[in-house]
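Supplementary Note 3. Input sequence used for the single-chain structure prediction.
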Amino acid sequence: MNDLPEPSAEALALSQQLVAVIREEIAAGAGSIPFSRYMELCLYSPGLGYYSAGSQKFGAAGDFITAPELSSLFGRCLAQSCASVLVELGGGDILEFGAGSGRLAADILGELETAGHLPGQYCILERSAELRARQQETLVTQVPQLFERVVWLDALPQANFRGVLLANEVLDAMPVERFRWNGTAVELFHVSGSDEPLDWCPVETHGGAVAADVRHLVTEAGLAAGYVSEINMTLAPWLGSIAALLDQGMVLLADYGYPRHEYYHPQRSAGTLMCHYRHRAHDNPFLWPGLQDITAHVDFTAVAEAGSAAGLDVTGYTTQVHFLLDCGIDRLLSAVGPSDSVDYLKQAQQAKQLLLPGEMGERFKFIGLTRDIENPIPGFRLQNFLHRL
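The predicted structure, written as discrete structure tokens, is reproduced below.
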């Protein structure tokens, strides 16, 4: 990791403050804390966590580029799915989780305005005060005429939500448990280091929900001794809370991941945990806590199971390339202008990154969970891979 650029002195000072918070919790926790708690602190600790502090995260100056940051075509395509649901419901709202810079919200709202299918409200549930401010700046700049339609929430609505619940690259940032199957027992990776460098601390576990779920995976996927991976214990409760408030509409989730038989494949025996810093990826979550993103891929079979258990219909599962093609990305691109225009060529290049298998096209997936929706959802009509789950 010698190729990673050194953080500024100010950034390193913030990281050291977060490390002090983590060490205090480790000391209070009898010498270690679960990795899920460490990941939670690294990403969301108030004022110090990766998504809570003020560093640039998205785009060329940040640590990674998301699809909405890459091209407005992405959000305009998602608007086609949203419009279909809003039309069937005769109205409704959109609620986006973790709206990043606000680009996706701006692009969706702009496209829905053009189509004449604006939601009653566009709600954003955002934990980070810094990101809220950035979202407000983006929206008031890009769609000032629609800014009053946007509402920021501190918590989920209580009930009776009608419309679309949207989460783009949210699931991969949920804290996960990291485990190892040693052939006879489950070992959960804790983090230790109250008075020494932060490091892994495997703890053999025989009881509890995590051990039970991992043992189920061992049987279902045939995990060999020494297999290391992750499991998201937050996913099912999160989807349950969403299902409880959804009266009618769709939950649309986009992220990178696999169905379970690919996620826990023998070739993936070191797991999917990954860190992102200045457009470089590595696997050391203890480097500069709070200054780098920590993610894990999504088990989309678990998403489908949790959604179904919560009473939602698993309507569609497909790759990003098929989703965007079904939503008319080629039509939107052709409407930009003549093929020799600078803008067209720029957007065509962006579309390639969204669609090509070696870029985002196959790595990213979409899954749709619905309640009382009858019309086919744009995005899942061209190719629906529900059988792969």
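DSSP finds 13 helices and 16 strands in the chain. The chain has a mean pLDDT of 93.
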